Every structure is written in structure tokens, then in C-alpha cells.
Amino acid sequence: MESKPRIGVYICHCGVNISATVDVEQVAEFAATLPNVVVSRDYLYMCSDPGQGLIQEDIETYDLNRVVVASCSPRMHEPTFQGAAQQAGMNPYLVEMANIREQCSWVHSDRERATEKAKWLVASVVAKAAELSPLEEREVDVTPGSVVVGGGVAGMAAALDVADAGFPVYLVEKSERLGGRLAELNRTFPTLEPVADLIGPLIERVQTHPAITLFLNAQVTNVEGYVGNFKVKVTGQEGERQVEVGSIIIATGYDLFDPQRKPELGYEYPNVITSLEMEQRLFDGDLAVNGREPQRVTFIQCVGSRDVQVGNPYCSRVCCMYTAKQASLVKDILPNADVTVLYMDVRTFGKGAEEFYDEARAKGVRYRKGNVSEIYRRGERVVLSGEDTLLGQPFDWETDLVVLAVGMESRADISELSTMLKLPRSADGFFLELHPKLRPVDTAVNGVFLAGCCQGPKDIPDTVAQAKAAASSALIPLLKGTVPVESATAVVDADLCAGCGMCVDVCPYGAPALDLLWGVSKINAVLCKGCGACATACPSKAINLQHFTPEQILAQVDALVG
Amino acid sequence: MSKPAALIIGGGIAGIQAALDIADAGFKAYLVEREPSIGGRMAQLDKTFPTLDCSSCILTPKMVDVGRHSNIELMTYCEVVSVEKEEDIFRARVRQKPRYVDMDRCTGCGLCALACRRKDRILHEFDEGIAKRSSIYVPFPQAVPLKYTIDPEACLYLTRGKCGNTFLCKDACPADAIDFEQQETFVDLEVDAVIIATGFDLMDPTLKPEFGYGVYPEVMTGIQFERLSSASGPTMGKILVNGKEPKDVVFIKCVGSRDPHTGVPYCSRVCCMYTAKHAHLVRDRIPDANITVFYIDVRAFGKGYEEFYDRVKHERVRYRRGEPSEVYRRGDRLVVLAEDTMLGRPVEVEADLVVLATAVVPRGDTADVAELLGLERSPDGFFQEANVHLRPVDTVVEGIYLAGCNQSPKDIPDTVAQAKAAAASAMRVLARRRRQST
User: Fold this and answer.
1) Which tens digits make up the pLDDT trace of A332-375?
2) Do domains B5-97+184-199+363-437 and B203-360 have the same CATH topology?
3) Chain A residues within an 8 Å CB radius of B267
């Protein structure tokens, strides 16, 4: 684009978000006086349909070849205005934004000085806009298919959705069987269905689905590529195999808290068992302790959850309900036994959950708010020593059988996958979703999605919903057939490049590589995310990041200081 | 052969997310919303827990995406009146209610609302009645589409046949967009899948008359508090009661929830966390306020939720375990009477503001929608999923899926996950249809 820049400037009121602190009319008048500016306006909501329409009309009427919008952060609405410009026939990379909301009106109170600052911000962006070049919007074809890592209920549910939509799925499971943790359980809450009835048909469907290839006793050992085109190496007993897919779903599940980390709870005694061991006992119908039916069974909730001392400040979300379920089943088997649950808060929040908790209490399960400080042995029984926090009194509670409701933790080996895929983790150790509210299954890595408890504790329905959600995200590129790739990528000037390889070292995405024949760096535009690390590292100034060239940035700086 | 298509009923965050996923995958999505704008409940919220992101700041980009997506046909101020299933095809009839405003002409400038004879006299639903609007209005400034609508129950001309000597809105409109002749119209759609994302209602707090809602102006609901503390609300985010900053604020949780007497035996799942957030917002705006939260159990179970609850407790918010039995007036203040079950005795707490965390209940028309679509309901009144564990978004009708709170109360991340799950179920059907037609 060699023709002279013709810039339109649009100052947004953002309702009162900007206009309460910044005199937007004044900023618009000022912008009209800047070099290359052909038209300058202010409007209540530039992002609204009529606001965008205003820009599109002006592009036509004034033959604009650059657009500057001064409003919120470009993270919010840059795609909006780029899209509007594109519809009006302008290259979207000829749109620039000045952030006069987050970086001005929201952080200042002095109207006069905030208005002054907004003018400077607009002037600098107008200066950069004059230096902009159009960039090509690019897409690449997608390799149809997904890899699903983990064969528990999350992995299976996700695999079935992708496969039923007509795409090949490679399901990689570390152990020798499908079913994951769910297969270790006896009955579900709150409906008390036998788990085998649920999981049997599910496993059967996965095993017999023509589009699903199953790798048992296998692990993902390497991942290369990017959204749309991943090369995934699967290593198993039958050796290595590389599969090519468009998206990856991580469904690696969780570990249970090891109660030995709380030695005061006496897990070494035969009368003290974990909730998972209780599942097996309920399955076997054998609750005997030392060959006798227990007279008292006591459940302790929040073992390893809501516990800063063991490093797990969070709630494990399922223990309240599985404890209610187990206590209720024990009461059914031993109607005359004293069945007591010691709790901090009862969190029975799911569909039908509170109702189930009410029924358990009506059946005679006793709930006591309290903390246990120690469990010790007395004859064949154990004594729970603690405090009843409602009565405000200490108790010593003799019991025959203690069940520790152990919480969930991220898997011990989570860091391997986290490092391999560059997947960030949250403070609680689980994988981090892209946004806690609106992107619960997406990750920082495009094309890689989270399903189930590897993102945080959940019950079965929430796990299945999330697994299907991950399937939806994973299906989008497959169904669409193409994915857009970053246009503002780095490019190497081969004449200047000395082939030192520093760009190769600094790039987090593996985009640059040294061309062995010519001894210079080449950047794979599909892998490049446009972060600019290589451009700043390059000692020969041979790398230019498009859309952020030295000329563009210096024009912006000059306008601010000049 | 036409593009495979899905009908999404309800334009809250659940419907928005489901529509975006389906449209991004290359299918057609018809998004039908009965209100003049999409956005739903989430648009009304101030901040979101536990990260305190501004709700509309994260929602509006999605709303804009819906508005400009080439695969989404947005049908606002519309209602689905019938759905017939014939083999694998659903035939739906949609009623477009008259806005009395020409959508193509209206620029959203708002001069009509300023001119309206009934300006500042109509209860503003979006602000939960704590502010007034005109007869011609947009629900909120970031509405999508940003087009005005005349409220047929408030407009003088539409109710009485006369609006002074001249139509002030019509005179004020520079785009000549006001059209009192507009009639309702019907659109027939053919789709391969239907997603129901019709949301929830909040329990009427007067069902618990002991808390004095509607009697004392200092008693409000959680959703009203959202509008009060929202920077885009009527007080610009200042927490004011009768024009003054409250010094003693009491939050009452489980108002209706976990209470078989109100017909809501279940837990509403979001109140513990939004109350913690509200307590934090009060502390943030009124540093010296005394803040008390009455609870039965604190249910902070989501990612980062327990950590947020810990933080709020350390911000000098007093959590007291107990169910208040009454709110009454003493002098110019209110008194909350409760049994503190930790202390084992009744306590009185004075308050200038009492916020009720009212139960999430099925929408009033759930029975009608169930009838319309042949769906079943669970004992709690919400829609029944096909299998509680393994098919949480499917229904007994193949091709109809559930998203969001119409299946059971849930928070935003769980709603979004479930909406995407419904989209995944729909995509299986849509992909099959596409394979058959090519």
C-alpha cells in the first residue's frame, strides 16, 4: 500500500465509562488536526452495530485506508473493528486501537489531565497507523481426528462425541483397562445405581466404535505441531506409533489424597480405612472389623481437602455426597449401628443431592459438626478425639470403623504432560483453563482441551458435561476443516542473518530453525505466534515482527515524546 | 441442500455459548430470545466470583460475536410458539413480537427514550425495579442488538390510543424508525437439533414474609444488590440505601433453598459464592461497614472458591451459622433475629441493609415448554436429563438438548461447560446430516 494514508479516527464514549472522565468531543476535535487524519468522530458505543456502521460508511465515503478506534483494550474489541473494516473492504491489519478506557479513564480521576493523556494516546496510535502495512489473512487445513489422553469416564465420553461426529479418535490409556477411577466405585450418588451398569455399556461402546482406536498400556510421549495439525507420538507395549490429528483432549483424571500424610488420623490401624476402600467393602457387602459387625461407623469428611497445612486449600467437591451415600448404605446394611458423619460444612449441591442428604438423616445417619484432632487405639476399637464445634465441647468418641473421606489431588505425574504440551497449571496443581468463567475447557495452547478432574475435582455428571464440552471445542476445527493462523508473524531478512541461532533458543513455540544449506534462520509462519521474542533477541536486527516493526513502534514513540 | 441447522431457545450465556460453538463449527444457528436483547442473567451481574472479573466486560464480547457471526441468525423479542418433529427434522414456528421500531432504521441513539412522556416512570426490569425507564427503551446500554423497543404495556399510545397531541418519540427520532403500525409476524424454521437454554427464575421473596421484603425498603434480593453495586447500575456502583451508605449489612443465605416448606428442598448452588462476593464488594466500597453473613453450610466447592471464601472471611466479614427467623423494625433501623447455632442461643443483629439470597427456581413456563417439546421434568421442577450421570444434557427426545440452569441451578463455568456439552450432542446430529447430504 503506497498510497498516502487516509485515516479515520473514532473516539468511543463507552456509555459513561470513558466520557465521564475524558472529554471525548475534545479528543475527537484534536484528532482531526493530526497528520493524515481525514475524518474524526465520537460516538456513544463504537462497538455497537450503528457504531461499526459509522466506520464502514466513512471507509466508503472518505476512501479511508486506515482506521483508528480509541476505546477499550484491543483484547476486547480489536476483532470487532477488524471485522467491521474487513466487511467494508479494508485489510483488517490497517486498523489500530488506542486504549483510552483501561489505560486512561478507568485509572484517572482528573478530567482535564485524563483528556490530555487520551489525546497523546490517540496521537501516538495515529502515527503508528500511518506506517501500517496490510497483512494476509491465512488459514491452514486441518487433519481430521483427535487424540484423547485418558480412558476414564471423561476420556470415554469425549471420545464418543468426537467419533460419533464422524472423526477418527485415538484414545490413549496408561493402564491395562478402560473405566478409570469410576470403575473402582460401587454405586453412584444420588441415584444409587450400580456403577457396573453405567460403565459396562460405555466401555463396550468405546471398544466397538469403528472410529475409535484404543491404545491401552500406552502413553503420549511427544507432541509436535499446532492446532489443526498435531503429530502425537504414542508409546506402548507394542512400540511407538505416531498419529496425526487436529485437536487433543486431556482427560488424565486425579489422584486421591494419601491419608498417611495426616498421621494423626491413624490410617495404620485396621479399623481406619479410606472411602475408596469402603467402596470395595460395600461392593463385597463385608463391613466386618476383626470378624465382627461394627456397632459404630464414623465418617470423617475433608481429609486432605480444605486443609492449608497439607497444601490443599480447596474443596474436593465430591466427598460430601459420596460420604452421604456410603453412610446411607451402611445404615441399610446395619440398621442398628450408630452411623455418624463428622463434617465442617455439608456441601450437597448437585441435582437431587440435598434431597439425598435429607433422606440419609431421616434414615438415622447422624451428622455432627466437628474436627478430629487425633485417632488412637483402645482395645479392638479406636477413639476419635476432637471437638464438636456446635456444642463447643471436646469429645472422645469410641468407634469400630472409621472411614476417611479422602480428597482429590492433581496427578503425581501431571508435570510430565504439562511440560510436554506447555500447559499451565493453577495454584491448586490442576491444569489451568483459559478463563475461569467463560473458557472452562480451553487451554493456553490452541487445540488442546481439558476434560474432567484433571482441571479440578468434579462429580460424574459434571465430568461428563465437561468432557462433552471439550469434545465440542475439539470438534470445531475438525468440522470447519480449516484453522486461521497468526498473520503478524516474524520474518527473517536473510541478508542480515548471521545464523547464530539465538532466535531458535528463545522461541517458546519452536518456529525458527536454521537452514543448514544457507546457514540462516527461517521462521515457520504456521508455528509463529507473533510474540516478538526472536526479534528482540536477534543481535543482527535481522528479524522483523510484522505489524510491530521498528518504524511503526518508533513513529508511535516519536509522537509521544516529540 | 440447505446447511444443517440448530435452534437455540434462550439467549443467556448458555444459549450464547451453544450458538457460538455450533456456528463456529460451520453450522447454522438460530438463536431465539424473548427479551429485546440477548445477555440474560449474566448481563445483570456486577462482578463474577471468584476472580471478580466484571461480568459484562467478559460477556459483551461474546454478545457482539453472536451479533456479527455469519452463521448465527439472531431473533430477539421472539418466542417459539410450536415445534413439530417429523422424522429427524424439527419444524418450529417463531413469533416476532412487534417492537414498534424499525430495526433497520434505528441507530440506538436513545433520543426517543429521552423524549418519552413516561421517561423515568416505568419500573426497569433489567435493574430489578431499583430504577425507572421510559416506555421506549433498551434493557441496557450494551444490548445486542442495540435497537429500541416500545413496551406495549407502558406506552401511552399503545395502551390508551393517545399520547398528548404528538408522539414525542416519533418527533425525536432522527432516523424515522418509530412505527406504531408494526404487527406481529411469524417465521417458520426447519432445524435438525434444538437446544433449550431458557434459564431460571428467582423465588419470590414475599413467600418468606418474615424477612419483610416489600415492606422494608432496606431489604433487597441478591440480584437487586448486583444492580446496586454495578458500575453501570442506577447508582453507578455506590451502595446506597435510602440515599445513605449502610453501616451494618446482613446477608441471609438459603432464602427458600434447602427449605421443603417453600417447595425448594434443593440447594441453589450459587448463593454461597455470590454472597461471599457481595460481602467482599461491601467491604471494598464501605471499609468500616459491619458485615454479617447468616448461613447453614458454606458451600464453596468450585475451582478457587474455597480460597475466595477464606479471603472474604479474613476481610472482617462475620460468618454466623444460623437461620434467621425474622426481620423487624426498631427505630429507624432493622433487626435480624436469628438462632446462632454455634453459640446455641438467639441473637439480634441490627442492619441498615438486608440482602436475601433467594432460591433459583424453574421458570414459570417450564411446564408449557415441556408440553411444547414433549420433555419430562424432574421432581424439583427442572427439565429432566436422559441419564443423570452419563447423559446430562440429552433429553428423552432425540435431537433436543438442555443447556444451563433449566436443568438444575449452576454457576457460570458449569453453565458454559454444559452449553458446550449440548452443542457437542447437537454437532453429532448436525455432522451426520451434513454427511448424508453430501
Assistant:
1) 999 999 999 999 999 999 999 999 999 999 999 999 999 999 99
2) yes
3) 348-349, 353-354
